[in-house]
Amino acid sequence: MIRYRSGYKYQLAEPDALNVGIIPPESIVTPFICLSERGNLYINGGYAWDGATGFPDIPSIMRGSLVHDALYQLMRLGHLPPACRAQADTMLYRCCLEDGMFKPMAWAVFKAVRLAGSSAASPTNAKPILEAP
Q: So where are the chain's domains?
């Protein structure tokens, strides 16, 4: 029997790290995501994410969607409080701009996650584990 989570389109080929400015009271360590007490986010190779929901997966959104999905996952798992959502959304915006996205499009991405992203950060929205024979 194979157990898996559906809904992912991409898998990180090598580790990535970025300071996100979210400072937890103690380091958060999961199998694929670590957030240090200094705000450094480490995402291990093999991490899977679904890209930018509702937007085309163009190069200038890929890193932002990776970081954003990892931070939202930490919220869904209860490691970060929902109040961190605004910082996660701002990191998405910042990454998009740094990676060359046209500013009005980056703003549209930011506004979309601010308006419609709260359920994606909720623990009730965790991806279920499915089984295949």
A: 8-118
